[in-house]
Amino acid sequence: MKWYIARRLAWTVVATFIILSLTFGLMAASPDPQAASYVAQQVQEGGDFEEAQESYERARGLDQPLWERYKNYMIGMVTLDWGWSETRSQPVTEAILEAWPYSVMYATPALIISTVLGVAIGLYSATHRNSLEDYAASAFAFFGISIPDFWFGILMILIFGVWLGWIPIYYHSDVPWFSLQNVQQLIAPTLVVTLSSIASEMRFSRATALEYVNAEFVKTAKAKGADSWRRVTRHIFRPALVPLSTILVGDILNIVLVSSYLVEVVFGIPGLGQLSYKAIIQQDVALVLATVLIPTFIAIVGNLFQDLAYTVLDPRISYGER
């Protein structure tokens, strides 16, 4: 087990290095809209085109060789000196520390609600297969998977914000975090993220639980007099928990990588998704690399803990010989 963990940690370093390198290469190869805007403004004011371009490159550190810029960024990532955000005029670490609480405020309850309700509804649907409740749960799951997050968010703003006036149209960051007003404006983004996550959780848990509903050990437990609650929790849910744990990391990544961008842009939440989105649009390379590092770390470390959790949930799994 120790050797397996050591190898996975070593692979974590390699995978992070590869992802950051690819991100840096894509950012370096893509055009910079700010450069064209700056140069055009200087030329209109009577400046020289080449001098304006050179001054912009010096200010952004683009006059250095590509290898030198790459080396400096990588050294900064290792030493936690993630550079300076040109668009925000502050260190990248400060920008991330300011943004992440806003993402956590809606992502955490969405993850908890979707996991608990999704698994519970999926287990109930599996044990009541082909019933009216099963059909209703399946219809809800297909609806949640099919509807786009950004469209559902706009629809909620239009109905509950514009027409009914129950929620703010735009997120107000000056509201105290621990206040009813902040809870009110977080309800809509939390529901949007929860809908898509709970649908995938429900479908996966239902499909997994169906493999054990008619298993011999479940029939034996029923013959011995075990009630339905004990059969579901002890004999169906526990073996199904091993594959179910794999979707948890996927749900976290879905919220961080996909939902956070769409939801925060639609609702105007100044979280990590909107921070990364603006950094990409404005070609803020240091900020982009830092925001890419966060989901990369979650994915790699989450998969490591997921594999280790297998041995706890199923003692038959062993990594000693791998």
Automatic annotation (TrEMBL):
Source organism, top-level taxon: Archaea
Gene3D superfamilies given in the database record: MetI-like
Main localisation: membrane
Any one of the GO CC terms: plasma membrane
Record's signal peptide: none
Transmembrane segments: 9-29, 106-127, 139-166, 252-273, 285-305
Membrane topology term: Multi-pass membrane protein
InterPro entries documented for this protein: MetI-like, MetI-like_sf
GO BP terms, alphabetized: transmembrane transport
Coiled coil, from the record: none
CDD domains named among the record's database cross-references: TM_PBP2
Classification via Pfam families: BPD_transp_1
Alphabetically ordered keywords of this record: Cell membrane, Membrane, Transmembrane, Transmembrane helix, Transport
Keyword Membrane: yes
Localisation: Cell membrane
Every ABC transmembrane type-1 domain range: 100-306
Mitochondrion recorded as keyword: no
Assigned protein family: Belongs to the binding-protein-dependent transport system permease family.
Name of the protein in its database record: Peptide/nickel transport system permease protein
Protein's organism: Halogeometricum limi
